[in-house]
Amino acid sequence: MTQPFELTPELQQAVSGFFQRIPFNQLLGIELELLSPERVTMTLPMKDELIGNFMHGILHGGVIASLLDVTGGAMALIGAFERHQHLPAGERMARLSKLGTIDLRIDYLRPGRGRGFTASAVLLRSGNKVAVVRSELHNDEGILVAVGTGTYLCG
Predict the structure, then answer these.
(1) Which intervals hold domain Thioesterase (predicted)?
(2) How many other C-beta atoms lie within 10 A of the C-beta of residue 150?
(3) What would the DSSP string read from start to end of 95-136?
């Protein structure tokens, strides 16, 4: 019988470090807010370099997709940690190093207006090799801007 999954401080640091070492995440300004077995939350402050519609100051759709993908990937990684907790640490890390997006669907519901944005993700399913994650993006007023469903290779 497997132990209930606990996202220990060491695992939190491993997931956090994994995403903080990606230069693109740093370029965008993505900040990690919450890592838990149930949910991942990341934030993104608005800045001029991220505007897609300069006439209205709206967040670029590619940035929206990227933020939802990064948040979903972190959730998939946590799900994979749980699925592979029985493996030795080295083997588990070797499998998780293969994490990648297989498919990503974004529904843009409203223009990306705001001073900042929060993306959250929940795990829909985590299998031996593939995870499916649902993500949402809200602006700083709590308005839902976009939703995404991502499929990730994670083992």
Answers:
(1) 56-145
(2) 26
(3) HHTT-EEEEEEEEE-S---SSEEEEEEEEEEE-SSEEEEEEE
Distance CA 119, CA 13 (A): 20
| Exposure class string for 50-64: b at 16+ Cβ within 10 A, else e | bbeeeeeebbeeebb
pLDDT in tens, 14-55: 778 878 888 999 999 999 999 999 999 999 999 999 999 989
Per residue in 54-75, pLDDT (tens digit) is 899 999 999 999 999 999 999 9
DSSP reduced 3-state for 84: coil
1 found inside a domain: no
Give the number of domains in the chain.
Answer: 1
- Taking the mean position of all CA atoms in its chain, how far away is CA 130? 15
3 within a domain of the structure (yes/no): no
Question: Per DSSP, which regions of the chain are E strands?
Answer: 31-35, 40-45, 51-53, 58-59, 100-108, 116-126, 130-139, 144-153
pTM of the model: 0.89
Residue 18 domain boundaries: 9-153
